[in-house]
C-alpha cells in the first residue's frame, strides 16, 4: 500500500481511547489509514514533517450561520451613540435597501428609533441587532407592516416580518457569502459546520437556499438544518403516520460527507441579549420574563410532526421556560412514537435549572452550547439573570456529570467563532471583562476539546466518520502551534494548518 500523505513529527491528541496519542498519521483516499507503527514503514506520495506541532481532529461547529456571517452589510459594531450610527449608515452606497448589522442597544446613549433613521431618506433601512433576535427599521419599512405599532424596534416575529420584505437573496449572493465564511472557519481549524436554519425563519436567505450550498462546493463539510416553517401537509399513506414533511419525504441523513441534511430547526423563544429568552421568573430588576416564539399549539405540532416524519430535531430553547416546553414536547413525541437514538438537540440550552438536568439526560437530549456567549456577554448576562441563576447559564460540568453529551458551537456571527476561544472559556469560565461566570461549571481541556470534536460529531450524527483521528475515519484535522492542555492562553494558540479529507491547507 502506498499512502497519499504521511504526517510525521506531530503530537496528536486523537480523541480515540484505543490510541489516544500519535506521532505519525497516514492518509489514503481522504481517510486516516493508520497511526504510528501501523503506517511507519509504508511509502507515501508525500511526507510532511510537522516539526513537533500539535494535531487535533478538525473542530466541528454544530450551530453556526455561514450565509449570515459572510453577508456584506454596513457594520455598526461598537458604536455607542445615535449620532455615530446615523453617520455610519449615511455612508451606504447605491440605492434600494440599506442593510446594516452589529447594533447593540445595551451600550447606546439612547435607543435608536425609526425617527432617527428617517433622516437618512426614503430608502428602506434594516439594522440588525447583534443578537439576531431584533432589529431597528425606519418608517418606510414600518408602513409596510400593517398591524405593527413600533418606534422602529422590532423583536422575534415582528422582526421576521420586516426582514421578509427584503428577501430573497439571490443564489449568487449566498454563494459569495458562503465562500467568505468558509475562509474564516478554515483559518480557525473548523472543518465542518452545521448551518442552523435554511429555507424560512429568522436566519433564512432564500427558499432555494440549499441550491446555493450545492452550487458553492465549499472546501468544508456542511450539514443543513431545515427550518420547521417549510414543513407542509403531505398526502402520505395514513399508515405512515406522517402528516407534514418537506418534498419527497427527505429528512435527516440525506446527502454525503460534504453536504447533507441535518436536523429540523425549530424555535421556542428568543435570546438573552434581546431580553426575549423565555424565563420562568423575570429578568432581574424588571417584570419582563421574555416570550415564547409562537403559540404553544403551533410549536408543539411542529415538534410532534417533525419527530413523526423521521427528523432529528434541533430545538432553539434558551430560557428555562422554553426548555421546559421543549422537554414536555419531546417527551410527548417519544410517547406517541418511540424512536431509539433520535438524538434530538436543544440549541443553546442557555439557562438550565438544576431540576431540568435529569430530564435532559433521561430524554437523551444533546445541549448544543455556545461558550463564547459568556466570554463576550457574560458580564451583562450575569446581571440580568441575578446571583441565583447566573451559575446555571451554558453549563458544562453539570451536563457531563449527568452523562449528557455536550456539543460545542459558536452561533457565528453572534459571537466569536473560534473554537479555541470557546475551549478556553469552558476551562476558565471567565468573561472578557474578567468576571467568573458559573465557575463550578468548568471542565477540563480534554473535555472541552471533546465537545468540539466527538461531541459535535455525535450531535450531527457523524461520529462514525468524524470527531477523532481513528483509522477509517475521514482525514479532517487541525495543526496547532501549541498544546491547549498546557497553554496559559488557549484562545491565542495559532492555527498552522487545517485538513479536510486529506487536503492540507496551510494558513496565511
What does this structure look like?
With 508 residues, the protein is an alpha/beta fold. It has three domains: 5-57 and 470-506, Urease, subunit C, domain 1 (Roll); 71-166, Diaminopimelate Epimerase, Chain A, domain 1; 171-459, Metal-dependent hydrolases (TIM Barrel). It is 29% helix and 23% strand. The chain is built from 14 helices and 23 strands. The protein has helices spanning 66-70, 82-89, 114-118, 139-142, 156-166, 171-187, 209-216, 296-308, 320-336, 354-362, 372-389, 397-401, 419-428, 445-459, and strands spanning 5-13, 21-22, 25-28, 31-35, 47-57, 59-64, 74-75, 98-103, 125-129, 134-137, 153-155, 190-198, 221-227, 232-233, 244-245, 259-267, 313-317, 345-348, 366-369, 407-408, 477-480, 495-500, 503-506. The strands form four sheets. Strands 1, 2, 3, 4, 5, 21, 22 and 23 form an eight-stranded mixed beta sheet that branches. Strands 6-12-13-16-17-18-19-20 form an eight-stranded parallel beta sheet. A hairpin with a 2-residue loop joins strand 22 and strand 23 (503-506). Helix 6 crosses helix 7 and helix 8 crosses helix 9 (320-336). The longest helix is centred in the C-terminal third of the chain and has 18 residues, at 372-389. The protein is globular, with a radius of gyration of 23 Å. The two termini are 33 Å apart.
Amino acid at each position: 500500500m502506498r499512502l497519499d500523505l504521511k504526517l510525521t513529527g506531530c503530537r496528536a491528541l486523537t480523541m480515540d481511547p484505543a490510541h489516544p496519542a500519535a506521532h505519525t498519521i497516514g492518509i489514503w483516499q481522504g481517510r486516516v489509514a493508520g497511526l504510528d507503527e501501523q503506517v511507519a514503514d509504508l511509502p507515501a506520495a508525500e511526507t510532511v514533517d510537522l516539526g513537533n506541532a500539535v494535531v487535533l481532529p478538525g473542530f466541528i461547529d454544530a450551530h453556526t450561520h455561514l450565509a449570515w456571517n459572510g453577508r456584506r452589510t454596513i457594520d455598526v459594531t461598537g458604536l455607542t451613540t445615535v449620532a455615530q450610527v446615523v453617520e455610519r449608515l449615511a455612508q451606504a452606497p447605491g440605492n434600494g435597501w440599506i442593510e446594516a448589522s452589529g447594533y447593540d442597544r445595551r451600550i447606546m446613549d439612547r435607543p435608536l428609533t425609526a425617527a432617527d433613521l428617517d433622516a437618512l431618506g426614503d430608502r428602506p433601512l434594516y439594522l440588525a441587532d447583534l443578537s439576531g433576535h431584533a432589529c431597528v427599521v425606519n418608517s418606510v419599512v414600518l408602513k409596510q407592516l400593517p398591524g405593527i405599532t413600533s418606534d422602529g424596534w422590532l423583536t422575534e416575529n415582528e422582526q421576521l416580518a420586516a426582514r421578509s420584505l427584503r428577501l430573497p437573496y439571490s443564489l449568487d449572493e449566498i454563494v459569495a457569502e458562503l465562500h467568505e465564511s468558509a475562509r474564516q472557519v478554515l483559518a480557525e481549524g473548523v472543518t465542518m459546520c452545521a448551518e442552523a436554519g435554511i429555507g424560512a425563519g429568522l436566519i433564512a436567505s432564500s427558499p432555494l437556499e440549499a441550491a446555493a450550498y450545492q452550487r458553492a462546493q465549499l472546501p468544508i463539510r456542511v450539514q443543513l438544518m431545515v427550518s420547521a416553517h417549510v414543513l407542509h401537509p403531505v398526502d402520505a399513506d395514513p399508515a405512515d403516520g406522517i402528516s407534514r414533511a418537506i418534498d419527497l419525504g427527505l429528512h435527516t441523513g440525506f446527502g454525503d460527507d460534504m453536504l447533507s441534511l441535518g436536523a429540523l430547526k425549530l424555535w421556542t423563544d428568543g435570546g438573552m441579549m434581546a431580553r426575549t429568552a423565555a424565563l420562568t421568573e423575570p429578568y432581574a430588576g424588571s417584570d419582563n420574563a421574555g416570550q415564547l416564539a409562537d403559540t404553544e399549539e403551533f410549536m408543539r405540532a411542529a415538534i410532534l410532526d417533525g419527530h413523526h416524519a423521521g427528523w432529528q430535531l434541533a430545538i432553539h430553547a434558551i430560557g428555562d421556560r422554553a426548555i421546559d416546553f421543549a422537554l414536555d414536547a419531546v417527551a410527548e413525541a417519544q410517547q406517541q412514537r418511540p424512536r431509539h437514538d433520535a438524538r434530538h438537540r436543544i440549541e443553546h440550552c442557555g439557562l438550565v435549572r438544576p431540576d431540568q438536568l435529569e430530564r435532559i439526560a433521561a430524554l437523551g437530549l444533546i445541549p448544543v452550547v455556545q461558550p463564547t456567549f459568556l466570554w463576550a456577554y457574560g458580564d451583562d448576562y450575569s446581571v440580568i439573570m441575578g446571583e441565583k441563576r447566573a451559575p446555571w447559564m451554558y453549563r458544562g460540568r453539570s451536563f457531563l456529570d449527568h452523562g449528557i453529551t455536550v456539543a460545542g458551537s459558536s452561533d457565528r456571527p453572534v459571537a466569536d467563532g473560534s473554537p479555541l476561544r470557546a475551549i478556553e472559556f469552558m476551562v476558565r469560565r471567565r468573561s472578557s471583562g474578567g468576571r467568573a461566570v458559573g465557575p463550578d461549571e468548568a471542565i477540563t481541556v480534554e473535555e472541552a476539546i471533546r465537545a468540539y470534536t466527538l461531541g459535535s460529531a455525535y450531535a450531527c450524527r457523524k461520529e462514525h466518520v468524524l470527531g477523532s483521528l481513528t483509522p477509517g475515519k475521514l482525514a479532517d484535522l487541525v495543526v496547532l502551534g501549541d498544546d491547549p492542555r498546557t497553554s496559559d492562553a488557549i484562545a491565542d494558540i495559532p492555527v498552522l494548518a487545517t485538513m479536510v479529507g486529506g487536503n492540507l491547507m496551510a494558513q496565511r
